[in-house]
Design brief:
Largest sheet: 8 strands, mixed
Helix content: 40-55%
Shape: globular
Radius of gyration: 18 Å
Number of helices: 10
Amino acid sequence: MIIAVTGKGGTGKTILAALLTHFISKKTNNVLAVDADPDSNLPDALGVSELVTKTLGEIREVFQESRDDMGTLNKEQWLEGKIYSEAICECDNFDLLVMGRPEGEGCYCFANNLLRGVLRKLMRHYDYIIIDSEAGLEHFSRKTIEGADYIIVVTDMSKKGLATAKRIKELSEELELNFKEIYLVGNRIASKEAEETIRKFAEDNGLKLLEILPYDEKIAELDLKGLPVTLLPEDSEYMRKVKKIADHFIELSVKAR
C-alpha cells in the first residue's frame, strides 16, 4: 500500500507523514518512509536525521558524473546496489529513503528513468510505503506520484491551503490518476466554526474527509527544541486521531489481502 501525503507547504503534511510512519510501524516493521520533499524535514520529524548519510539525489549525481566503479555490473544493478547499501536508512521499526534536492544542470532523463525502475522493484519489498510529497502540485503535474494507492491532502484554514487542496483534486481528475481514494485531513483546526468550514469544503469539492486534527501547541514546542514530533504524548487528542487514521489504512490493507 502506497500512501502519499501532500498539500501546501506549512500545512503539516510532514508531521502527518511522520506520525503515520510511527503508528503503522508499530504494527509491522515492513514500512518504508520516503522523504520526497526537497526541504527534507521527515528525518527530523522522525528523530532519525543522524542516520541519513546519502540521498537518492546524491547517488544519481555520482551515477551521472562517473561510472568507473561499476565493474561487471550493468547500470541498473549498480544503482540498485548503491540504493540498498547507501541510501536506505534502516531505523528501529521502519526504513527511510530521502530523495534529496532536484538535479542541477544537465540532462538526467536516462538516470531518472533507471531510478524509477529500481524504485518500483524496491517498493515491492514493503507492505506500506508512506511518502512525504513535495509541497504543491509538482508531483501531480509531472505524474511522479501516479503510483500511489491513496492520497492524503493536508490543509489548514488558510485560503492558499484550501486552494491547493482543491487544485490537487482537479489535477488528479484532469491527469486521470486513478487513485483508490483522495482523502482530506484538516490540520490545526481550533474551533467548531473552522471544523464546519472544513467539512463543507470537503463536501463541496468531492473530497472524502478522513479526519480533523486539532491545534496542539506541544508540536510547536517540540519543533522549537529540535525534537521529533513522535515524542507527542500518546494520549493527546492529536496522537489519538492520527492513530485512528493509521488504523484505517491498516484495516484497508488487511481487507485487500
